[in-house]
């Protein structure tokens, strides 16, 4: 798994949280992701939506793509399509993906890079594997998260953030055994590079086999842990959590604890790979249809009318320069 590795002994460390004096959050529910086909026919695992969205608010959707070893000609993406009212965050762990949108944003991301697209008032975009991955095949693994926008920000101008793997904030666990990558938000005073309209924290952790990872957590945020690969437990009660499963924690407490199993599958020999997500719930009405997420039905109807009238950009977009992260060295 090439997504940003580092010598954890050289990194800033998270604090050692006192066992008896810490209010640990307990797991309220475990959800197993369901399989869906997206775009031009690529498979994803989706833990939400499909459950009570209040458990995930302000998040709307999480798609886990792969890990898959594509044969030549198998890699697929999405055609041009519109969005309005939320943000898409695509994090590539292995392989590469190319994005382009009708406002001129886009680029190639790979191996630890993130593209953060704020659809806001509306645009169109396309996401495709690069030609070399289609031609030769290869390993591909990534996730896409949809982050809702509050009513007051649903009409902001579209924005694109190209977050290089160089920019991700790296920390280690208190004992130095596990690696934490902060993509957005703050953890123990350490800030990730992603700029957000909705207050969230989004991180990817590799928890060493048999190790425990304790995370201070904002009292006003919800908390979710999704397993990318491997197995472990979540919460002070040790609730089992395997690949493709999501733990939704309860609202009470100011810290999270997880532990990797002593033995891991071969694909996770370096550690248990998890996403940890949380945010301040928006608690506003959600009207959702296809690629649009607004607050009421009238706004959804308006979104379709605006799209059909060409008010969400023109395809094909003007050619834009693409940063090739594969050409960079770390």
Structural account:
The protein has 330 residues and is mostly beta strands. It has one domain (10-311): Jelly Rolls (Sandwich). It is 5% helix and 45% strand. Strands 1-22-19-24-17-14-13 form a seven-stranded antiparallel beta sheet, with no helix packed on it. A seven-stranded antiparallel beta sheet has the order 2-3-4-11-6-9-12. A hairpin with a 4-residue loop joins strand 7 (96-101) and strand 8 (106-110). The longest helix has 12 residues, at 297-308. The radius of gyration is 19 Å and the shape is globular.
Number of helical regions: 2
Instruction: Identify the CATH architecture.
Output: Sandwich
Mean pLDDT: 91
Strands ordered across the widest β-sheet: 1-22-19-24-17-14-13
Overall number of strands: 26
Query: Largest beta sheet, briefly?
Result: 7 strands, antiparallel
CATH superfamily: Jelly Rolls
Overall SS class: mainly beta
CATH topology name, in short, is Jelly Rolls
How many domains? The number is 1
Query: What string, H for helix and E for strand, traces the elements in order?
Result: EEEEEEEEEEHEEEEEEEEEEEEEEEEH
Helix content: under 10%
> β content, as a range?
over 45%
Describe, in short, the structure shown:
The protein contains two helices and 26 strands.
Task: Furnish the topology, listing elements before pairings.
Layout: E1 27-32, E2 34-38, E3 42-48, E4 59-70, E5 78-83, E6 86-94, E7 96-101, E8 106-110, E9 114-118, E10 123-128, H1 131-136, E11 138-148, E12 159-163, E13 169-172, E14 179-184, E15 186-187, E16 190-191, E17 200-207, E18 212-216, E19 224-229, E20 231-234, E21 239-242, E22 245-249, E23 255-260, E24 272-279, E25 287-289, E26 292-294, H2 297-308
Antiparallel strand pairs: 1-22, 2-3, 3-4, 4-11, 5-10, 6-9, 6-11, 7-8, 7-10, 9-12, 13-14, 14-17, 15-16, 17-24, 18-23, 19-22, 19-24, 20-21, 20-23, 25-26
